[in-house]
Amino acid sequence: MAGAAGPRAAPGAAGGDGDDSLYPIAVLIDELRNEDVQLRLNSIKKLSTIALALGVERTRTELLPFLTDTIYDEDEVLLALAEQLGNFTGLVGGPDFAHCLLPPLESLATVEETVVRDKAVESLRQISQEHTPVALEAHFVPLVKRLASGDWFTSRTSACGLFSVCYPRASNAVKAEIRQHFRSLCSDDTPMVRRAAASKLGEFAKVLELDSVKTEIVPLFTNLASDEQDSVRLLAVEACVSIAQLLSQDDLEALVIPILRQAAEDKSWRVRYMVADKFSELQKAVGPKITLNDLIPAFQSLLKDCEAEVRAAAAHKVKELCENLPTEGREAIIVNQILPYIKELVSDTNQHVKSALASVIMGLSTILGKENTIEHLLPLFLAQLKDECPEVRLNIISNLDCVNEVIGIRQLSQSLLPAIVELAEDAKWRVRLAIIEYMPLLAGQLGVEFFDEKLNSLCMAWLVDHVYAIREAATNNLMKLVQKFGTEWAQNTIVPKVLVMANDPNYLHRMTTLFCINALSEACGQEITTKQMLPIVLKMAGDQVANVRFNVAKSLQKIGPILDTDALQGKVKPVLQKLGQDEDMDVKYFAQEAISVVAQRLRKLDVLVKDREEPRIPGADKNLFLIPRGPGEDTGKGPACQLHVNTRDTLAQLEIAELVHFLQSRE
Amino acid sequence: MSSSPPAPSACAAISAAEKVDGFTRKSVRKAQRQKRSQGSSQFRSQGGQAELHPLPQLKDATSNEQQELFCQKLQQCCILFDFMDSVSDLKSKEIKRATLNELVEYVSTNRGVIVESAYSDIVKMISANIFRTLPPSDNPDFDPEEDEPTLEASWPHIQLVYEFFLRFLESPDFQPSIAKRYIDQKFVQQLLELFDSEDPRERDFLKTVLHRIYGKFLGLRAFIRKQINNIFLRFIYETEHFNGVAELLEILGSIINGFALPLKAEHKQFLMKVLIPMHTAKGLALFHAQVILPPQLPNCLIHFKLLGLLKFWPKTCSQKEVMFLGEIEEILDVIEPTQFKKIEEPLFKQISKCVSSSHFQVAERALYFWNNEYILSLIEENIDKILPIMFASLYKISKEHWNQTIVALVYNVLKTLMEMNGKLFDDLTSSYKAERQREKKKELEREELWKKLEELKLKKALENQNSAYNMHSLLSSTGAE
C-alpha cells in the first residue's frame, strides 16, 4: 500500500546535485516503495546498504525524512525498519548526528502493533547511549516527554521504557521533570499504560537516587500494588524484587514488606501466582531475616492456596527456598515449617502440583542429610513413587541420583521396582521413552544382580515395542548397559536373546537384531562380534524383505572396523558382492556403499601389516606411497579422503584391494 | 507391547488408538473429558460456613415487617456456598435457592417494595454473589469453536441473583438517581471483568444487565465505553484472550447504531483503532458477525474501513480471508460510486491476488463478486481502471488453476469483462507476453542494482578497514619513535 500511497514524491528525487554518489535516491526509494510487500521488506532489511550508497549527508537529509514520512505501512516492514534504525548511528555520521534518527523512531514508537513499538523502544534505548549528554537533553529527553504526554495510549506506554536510559545522564532539573512524568504515567487513566509503567518501575528505581526511591518510588509501588486491575498488581510484584534490593532492612520492613504480604494474599490468583513464581528472587532480595519472619509464612499459605496453579508454582520453588535459607538452623526450619506443608502436597488433588513437587523434592535430601531424609523424606518419596500419575513417578525416578548420594538407592528399591515396571508398560510411549533413558543410571545404582533379576526382561521387552522410537532407545540402552556391566555379562545375558530375534517372523524385530548388533559390536569387541554376531548378520543377507537386506549391508559396513582381515575378506566381501547384485535398488546402493568402506578398511589393515614388517620407515602415512596402485588412481589422496567416493568405482577398488592383499601375503 | 497388562481403566479407550500411531487424537482425548464445571477462585479462600435457617415467607409478613424481612433475606443471601463440593451444606443451599426465588418474585410482582433504604442491601447482595475472581482456565488452549466451555458451578444460585438484578433494574420503582450511589464506576468495572467468564449463560445475563445499566445511568456511559475500549485494546495488543468479546461488541454495536450523524470523534476512533485492528485476532470467526457492524457507515469511514481491511488482510489464514471477502462484499453492496472510485485501485489489487489464490474457497469467494449485480455495475463503470489490474492474474489462472470449478468461474468472469470493453481486452491479451517480459527485465535490473550496492558496501568496508589500519600503523610508528 505504501507503494500505492502516493503522490508524495521522494524528496530530492532529482538527485543530481552533482555529487559523486552512485545512485540517484529516487531509484533507491523506488525499491523502498515497491508494490510487493516482500520486496519492500527486503529493501528495508538492507537499509544500511542503501544508506552507505547515499553517504552520511544524504542519508540524513533525504533518506531519513523519507522514512519518517512513510510510517504507514505493513507492520512487518515497520518492525524491520525499527530494528535497522537502532544500528544506524554510524551511517548518519556518528554520535554527533544520532539525534537525526529520533523522528522516525518516535513515529514508530506510537504505532498500535506491540512488537513494532517494542522494537522501536529497544532501538531508542540503544541510540540513547550514543547521544552526547548535551544532545540527550536537547533531543532525546524532549522526545521522551512528548511520548509521555501523547494523546493515544501507545505513545505513553512506549515512554515508560525510556525513562531509565536517559535519567542517569540528565541534569538535576531535568531529572526532576523525568520523575514527574513517570509519576503521572503510574497513575495513568488507561490500564495499558499503568501496566507498562509497573513493568518498568523496578528498572527505573535502580537508576534513581536512594532518597527518591524512598520518597517517590515506594509510594508509586504502593499504589500500583493496590491497583484495581490485577494485571497491574501482579507487575508490581516483579518491581518489588528490584526495589527490595535498594532499600535498607528497616525501610524494607516498614515500607515494602506489608505490601508484599498483601500481594501474597491478594484476592486474584494471578497476583498470588506471581509471588510464588518470583519467590526465590524475592527471598534473595529481602535477605535472611525478613525471609524467616515474613516470607516463610507467606510461602506456607501459597503452598496451601486454593488454586492449583499457585500451589504448583510454589511447589516448584521448595528446593530453592530451602537451599537459600541460612545454613544455621536450616534443618529445623525445613523440618518444622516447610515439611508439614509438603506432606500435604504429596496427596494433592491436582497432578500438576504433585509433579511440580516431585521434580524438586529429591533435592531436599542433600540439604537435610541422611537421617532426616530417612525419617521425613523417604515416606514421601515412596508415596510419590506409587502415585497414580506417571509424570509424578517419572519425576521422582529421574532425580534418583540426589537421593543415591545421601542414603543409597537400596532404601527405595522395594518401591522403585513396581514403579519402574508400571512406567515401562505405560500406554503413552513418551513415558516409556523417558524411563528407558534412566535405565543405565538405575542399573549403575542398583547393581548387576538386582538388574538381572528384575529389570533385564523389561529391557528386552522394549526391543519389540510397537513404537520405533522405543525400540531405538532400547537398543542404545543395551549398549550403555554393556559399557557398564562388561562384555562377559553381555555375552551371557544380552547377546543370545538379541540373536534369537533374527528368526522372528516379524521383519521389524529381525531388523532390531541388526540395530542391536550395530550398537553392541563395538562394546562387545572383536571376538564376540566375529564369532557370534557376524554369522547371524551374514545369514540374514538372504532375508526375503529388502529392508532387512539393506540393513545387513549397513550393519556390515558398521561392524567392518571391528573385524579382522580374514573375516572381511572371506566372509563379508562375498556377501556384500552378492547384495551388490540384488534386484532391489536400495539394497544395491547400500551394499555398494559398504563395499567401498570395507575396501578401505582392508587396505588400511594391509598398510598396518606392512608397517610392522618394515620398521625402518616411520609412520604409516609415508608408507602409502610405496604401495602399488591401480591405473588411474589418484595417489595423492589418502584412504580417509576416499571414504565417500562414487560407489560406481567401488567394485574396482575392491579388486585393487584384493591385489594389494595378494602381493602382501606373497611377501 | 503384547505382554503389557490391561491398561488402567481411564486409558483403555485411548490405548487401542495409540497403538496405531502413538499419538492420541484430539477428538479421542476430548471424548474422555467430561463436562466440567468450576467454582469461583474467591470462594475457595473463605473459611467455615454458617448454616442458614429459613426465615418466614415474605407474603406472610405484615406490610410493616415486610421491609425488615426483605433486608434480612438479602443479607442471608450474601452467604456463599461451595458448589465444587456437591454434598456439603445441602440444606443451606436449598434455603438460599428458595429465598432467592422468593426475592425475584417479590420485586417483580409487588409495587413500592424497592425503597431507598433497600438499595444498599440489594447491591451488596448482588456484589457479594457475582463479583468474584474468575478461576484459571482448566484448559489453557481452550478453543471456543470446538471445546465445551467450563460451566460455573454455583450457577443454581448465581443465575437467580442475575435474575433478581435484572428485575431490580427493570422495575418501574427503580430510581437511577438513588442507585447511582451504589452502582458506580467501580461496580461497573467489576461487572465488565466478569465478561471473561467461560460460561456463556453468564455472559448472556451480563450483556442484558450492562445494557440496562447503560440505558439508565447516563453518568456512566462514557466510562463504560472507555472501559470496553480498554478491554478490546488489551485483547488485541496484549493477551489475545477474552471470552466476552462478542457480547461486548454487541452492546457497543447497539450503542453506536443509536447515534445520529455526524458521528462522534470517539466512535470514529473506535472504528479505526479497535474495530478494524480486531480483525487480526486469532478467534475472529467467533465474533466476526459483531465486528462487521455498524452496517451503515458514513462515507468517509467506509473509505477508512476498506483501507484498514486491506492493511490487515490475512496472510496465512484462508478461512479468515473468506470472511474478509464477505465483509468487503457487504461494504461494496452499499458503497457510493464516488467512494468506489477512490478505493478501487488498492481494492482490486487485493482481489486479483484472491482470485488467483491456490485455496479454491478463497478464489471462489472472490470470483462470486461477479455475480453481484451492483458490484458488476460498479466494475463496468470503471472497467478501464479495473481490467488492467485484474487481467494478468485472471488470464494466468484460467490456464493454471488446479480446481476445475475455479477455471470455469474465471472463464465466465473473463467473458463478462471482455463484453464490457472488448478493445481493451484485446489489447491486454496481445500485450500480455510483452508485459511479462518487461517484468522479468525489471526483476533483473533490481538484482543488478542490489549486486552493485553490495559491492559498494564491501568496498567501503574495505576502505574503512584500510584507513583504520593506516591509522593504527601511523599510531604505532609514532609510538615507536
Q: Count the beta strands of chain A.
A: 0
Largest sheet of chain B: 2 strands, parallel
Q: Order the strands across the largest sheet of chain B as they lie in space.
A: 1-2
Indicate the percent of residues in helices of chain B.
55-70%
Tally of DSSP helical segments of chain A: 36
Strand content of chain B: under 5%
Radius of gyration of chain B: 33 Å
Distance between the termini of chain A: 83 Å
- Largest interchain contact: A-B, 45 and 45 residues
Overall 3D shape of chain B: elongated
Total strands of chain B: the figure is 2
The secondary-structure class of chain A comes to: mainly alpha
- What percentage of the residues of chain A does DSSP assign to strands (E)? under 5%
Domain Phosphatase PP2A regulatory subunit A/Splicing factor 3B subunit 1-like HEAT repeat (chain A): 288-369
Protein name (chain A): Protein phosphatase 2, regulatory subunit A, beta
GO molecular function, one term (chain A): protein phosphatase regulator activity
InterPro entries (chain A): 2AA_helical, ARM-like, ARM-type_fold, HEAT, HEAT_type_2, PP2A/SF3B1-like_HEAT, PP2A_Regulatory_Subunit_A
Report on the architecture of this protein.
The complex is a heterodimer of chains A (667) and B (481). Chain A has 36 helices and no strands. Chain A has helices at 2-5, 25-32, 37-45, 47-69, 75-85, 102-108, 114-128, 133-148, 153-160, 163-166, 172-186, 191-207, 210-225, 230-246, 249-264, 269-277, 279-303, 308-316, 318-323, 330-346, 351-361, 364-385, 390-398, 400-407, 410-424, 429-446, 448-462, 468-485, 487-500, 507-524, 526-540, 546-559, 565-580, 585-613, 620-623, 650-666. The longest helix of chain A is centred in the last third of the chain and has 29 residues, at 585-613. Chain B is mainly alpha-helical and 481 residues long. A two-stranded parallel ribbon of chain B has the order 1-2. The longest helix of chain B has 59 residues, at 422-480. Chains A and B meet through helix 4 and helix 12 of A and helix 1, helix 3, helix 11, helix 15 and helix 17 of B.
